[in-house]
Design a protein that fits this description.
The complex is a heterodimer. By secondary structure, chain A is α/β, with parallel strands linked by helices. Helices cover 38% and strands 15% of the residues of chain A. Chain A is built from 24 helices and 19 strands. In chain A, helix 9 (224-231) packs parallel to helix 11 (261-276), helix 17 runs antiparallel to helix 18 and helix 17 (459-473) runs antiparallel to helix 21. By secondary structure, chain B is of the alpha+beta class. Chain B has a five-stranded mixed sheet with strand order 2-3-1-4-5, with helices on one face. In chain B, strand 2 and strand 3 form a beta hairpin. In chain B, helix 1 (3-23) runs antiparallel to helix 2 (30-41), helix 2 packs antiparallel against helix 3 and helix 3 crosses helix 4 (60-69). The radius of gyration of chain B is 18 Å and the shape is elongated. Classes of the chains: A alpha/beta, B alpha+beta. Chains A and B meet through helix 2, strand 11, strand 15 and helix 17 of A and helix 2, helix 4, helix 5 and strand 5 of B. Bound molecules: flavin mononucleotide, iron/sulfur cluster (3 copies) and FE2/S2 (inorganic) cluster (FES) (2 copies). The site of one iron/sulfur cluster has 14 residues of chain A, from helix 18 and helix 20.
């Protein structure tokens, strides 16, 4: 029988480079999109050319999207150093200096990882660096640091300790009590207490039960679940196995969106590896416990993230939500009691079991325990994937970790929670990030997408953008959502085109409230949030569009006015040649002018003018 | 039809038969079967959906209903290369719309259209999960990040 401890002991030290330098490239979807593969090829070529004895590996994403491609260089007995913005052109210097001469290239280094070796001077240490200093990495603790496809690496870093503890020393009830004690709440959006949910499925009558992992991650601007699946698939699998034991299930499904091919591939690899070692499948660890795990690829429908729609989709039907109750815990997949949790929820489970519920509950706020993974995107300097304790303020996240607004522009709003969430303005920046504070402010925790917007973002356009999304994704089953999203979108489009009327704002608000209160599923119930929150915090922008026929952020095309400054215009004619609608006229070497009646506001003239004579108002 | 065309059809029919065989009797297999059928044919021809319905012993309307519900399924042939431009929130605030415009102009086609030579189909998607590198697009299985309209022609060249 598999002896995990012996296996783990035999692996000690194997995670650190032994006697050879190692070069490791971040090769998640995002790392690849940033050119990781070209960097890897360049490393291989250069190492080959110099005849160096090095290991070249790939890992997942350490979370510094802004610095991709990221490469880690580690010499035997020295700290691991992470470099950002690595290009194939930089590779020869990097190898020559760091690998051959043993001196890191300090100006390109982002951080070094403290691991008992003597740190290099002049390179920030991960735990105290500006980007990682306020982070607490639990769920993401292996990301970018281990090989996600290696079960050895997982086990060597404490993997499967929790499952072993559960199967050998705990009853299902004790497991549920431990999860309850941790205060863990669902990370998929609604924040339902996980331990309580498990106890419902446990208590539901029936001998066939399922556990399901929701990896549909449809919120635009969110990639936490993808990163965890690509970076540490085993922790999700171990968490699901523990859940299956706790609720009394012997079969499970991971429903992963089809847009994540790499996550699906890594999951398949991980499942096969775990099965081979008897950590999944029949008679796990010789304890007689069985758990069979399948993967289902989604087929592109946002509403399938809703739990009842997701179950319909696994059953091979159209993914439409149904009325609850009955809840999946009573009647789920094929009518059997089913526990559904989000990727990050399951990923937390092994850590809670290993370290105890009290350890977890010590992090965070009174009602929101532990950490939360967020995706920082939009107009900020450091876009990336972060994990922070609950209760941290938005300001700390946006200004300390993310480094503030790009190009030193003015902060305008942060959108939290995707299409179900809201936009919060500057004076909400000191809000603690927890389920209840965010909901009270008109946003929601959601799954963890945070899109930061600056002065060049139009909030009416943002509201229209979200409505456009939800209108397209509404499954059409119930009228308030199907028709309400259409009407709201019409009004918002009208306002963006300068055709809005003041009474539209009241209609919009009234419609939003009706849809919120009467829609059947969460999609409809929450889709008014972006509208309501922008109406509440940015009403002046709506009014500018309607009353002054002006878009303060210069985004809404129909409201722009292009003019030529006669003082600056040299009469070169470049603009007139670029204009697709013949709106610009003027004699050679004489100031030109734009006929507003002909101008279609495409902006081509402004791009072409070398003298800065054209302005947009 | 010439011999090679016939041959090609036979290979596809055989591949589909294998898929149906493999999923035989599996509960909830309709969506994975449609996914694999689309892999084989590039889209879902009506006759193929009819055949799947027959094999699974379910009404054609059910197959058709599922195929039209999910955006991943296509009932019409598509180009050799599928461009999917992200129009998600993070990409939107970082100029995703301008990117769509630039590609649309470069290829002379709009959203959900295919170039006359069948080389490209242009689609939009609500998020590719690489938002930290916004704006982003995917061509086939390859993701491109931190795009600007200027970078587009060189990328399209490669296909
Ligand atoms: C329209 C809609 C989309 C959703 N999308 C997701 C999703 O992508 N991932 C997810 O985990 N939960 C999603 N949810 C929430 C799920 O219905 C469910 O609450 C969640 O998976 C439960 O897991 P948790 O308790 O671990 O959060 C969505 C809900 C709605 C209404
Ligand atoms: S609220 Fe919208 S998405 Fe949900 S069931 Fe109704 S129509 Fe479908
Ligand atoms: S391009 Fe500029 S300088 Fe030249 S004619 Fe137009 S506005 Fe004048
Ligand atoms: S914005 Fe476009 S249409 Fe208007 S004047 Fe300039 S080039 Fe012509
Ligand atoms: S670079 Fe990988 S998640 Fe951003
Ligand atoms: S919003 Fe474009 S990749 Fe996510």
């Amino acid at each position: 029988m598999l002896d995990l401890k012996e296996w783990r002991d035999s692996l000690q030290g194997r995670l650190r480079p032994g006697d050879r330098p190692s070069l490791t490239v971040g090769m998640s979807t995002c790392g690849q999109a940033a050119g990781g593969a070209r960097v890897m090829a360049a490393l291989e070529e250069e190492a080959g050319r110099l005849g160096l004895q090095v290991d070249i590996n790939q890992t997942s994403c350490i979370g510094m999207c802004y610095a991709e491609p990221v490469v880690e260089v580690a010499l035997p007995g020295k700290p691991r150093v992470f470099y950002g913005h690595v290009t194939p052109e930089r590779v020869p210097v990097l190898i020559e200096k760091h690998v051959v001469q043993g001196e890191p290239v300090r100006e390109w280094a982002l951080v070094q990882v403290e691991d008992g070796t003597v740190p290099y001077d002049g390179i920030p240490v991960m735990g105290t660096s500006p980007y990682y200093g306020c982070q607490v990495r639990v769920v993401t603790s292996r990301l970018g640091l281990t090989d996600p496809e290696s079960l050895d690496a997982y086990v060597a870093t404490g993997g499967y300790e929790a499952l072993e503890k559960v199967l050998r020393r705990m009853t299902p009830e004790e497991v549920i009590e431990e999860i309850k004690a941790s205060g863990l709440r669902g990370r998929g959006g609604a924040g339902f207490p996980t331990g309580l949910k498990w106890s419902f499925t446990r208590q539901a009558p029936g001998d066939k039960k399922y556990v399901v992992c929701n990896a549909d991650e449809g919120d635009p601007g969110a990639f936490m679940d993808r990163s965890v699946l690509e970076g540490d698939p085993f922790t999700v699998i171990e968490g699901m196995t523990i859940a299956a034991y706790a609720v009394g299930a012997d079969e499970g499904y991971i429903y992963c969106r089809a847009e994540y091919p790499l996550a699906i591939k890594r999951l398949k690899t991980a499942i096969a590896a775990a099965e081979e070692k008897g950590l999944l499948g029949r008679d796990i660890l010789g304890t007689g416990f069985n758990f069979e795990l399948h993967i289902k690829a989604g087929a592109g429908a946002f509403v399938c993230g809703e739990e009842t729609a997701l179950l319909a989709s696994i059953e091979g039907r159209r993914g439409m939500p149904r009325v609850r109750p009955p809840f999946p815990a009573q009647q789920g997949l094929w009518g059997k009691p089913t526990n559904i949790n989000n990727v990050e929820t399951y990923a937390n489970v092994p850590f809670i079991i290993k370290n105890g519920g009290r350890w977890f509950a010590a992090m965070g706020t009174e009602k929101s325990k532990g950490t939360k993974v967020f995706c920082l995107t939009g107009k900020i300097k450091n876009t990336g994937l972060i994990e922070v304790p609950m209760g941290i303020t938005l300001r700390e996240i946006i200004f300390d970790i993310a480094g503030g607004i790009q190009d030193d522009k003015q902060f305008k709003a942060v959108q939290i929670g995707g299409p179900s969430g809201g936009c919060l303005p500057e004076d909400k920046l000191d809000l603690p990030v927890d389920y209840d504070s965010l909901t009270a402010a008109g946003a929601i925790m959601g799954s963890g997408g945070m899109v930061v917007m600056d002065e060049n973002t139009c909030m009416v356009d943002v509201a229209r953008f979200f409505l456009n999304f939800t209108q397209a994704e509404s499954c059409g089953k119930c009228t308030p959502c199907r028709e309400g999203t259409k009407r709201m979108l019409e009004i918002l489009t009208r306002i963006c085109e300068g055709e809005g009327r003041m009474e539209d704002l009241d209609t919009l608000e009234a419609l939003a409230r009706v849809v919120k209160n009467t829609a059947l599923c969460g999609l409809g119930q929450t889709c008014p949030n972006p509208v309501l929150s922008t109406l509440h915090y940015f009403r002046h922008e709506y009014e500018a569009h309607i009353k002054d026929k002006r878009c303060p952020a210069h985004v809404c095309q129909a409201l722009l006015v292009y003019t030529i400054d006669a003082e600056k215009c040299t009469g070169c004619g470049a603009c007139a040649r670029a204009c697709p609608s013949g709106a610009i006229s003027g004699e050679k070497k004489q100031p030109h002018r734009i006929d507003p009646a002909l101008c279609i506001k495409c902006g081509s003239c402004m791009e072409k003018c070398k003298f800065g004579a054209i302005s947009r108002l | 039809m010439d011999a090679s065309g016939n041959n090609d059809m036979n290979i596809k029919a055989k591949a589909l038969a294998d898929v149906l065989e493999r999923y035989g009797g599996t509960k909830g297999a309709l969506i994975p079967i449609l996914q694999e059928a689309q892999e084989i044919y590039g889209y879902l021809p009506r006759e193929i959906m009819q055949e799947i319905a027959k094999k699974l012993k379910i009404p054609f309307s059910q197959v058709y209903g599922v195929a039209t519900f999910y955006t991943q399924f296509h009932l019409k042939p598509r180009g050799q290369n599928i461009i999917r431009i992200c129009q998600g929130t993070a990409c939107h605030v970082r100029g995703g719309a301008r990117l769509l415009e630039a590609i649309s102009k470069a290829l002379g086609i709009g959203k959900n259209e295919t170039t006359a030579d069948g080389r490209f189909t242009l689609e939009t998607v609500a998020c590719l999960g690489s938002c930290g590198l916004a704006p982003v697009m995917m061509i086939n299985e390859e993701t491109y990040g931190r795009l600007t309209p200027e970078k587009i022609p060189a990328i399209l060249e490669k296909y």
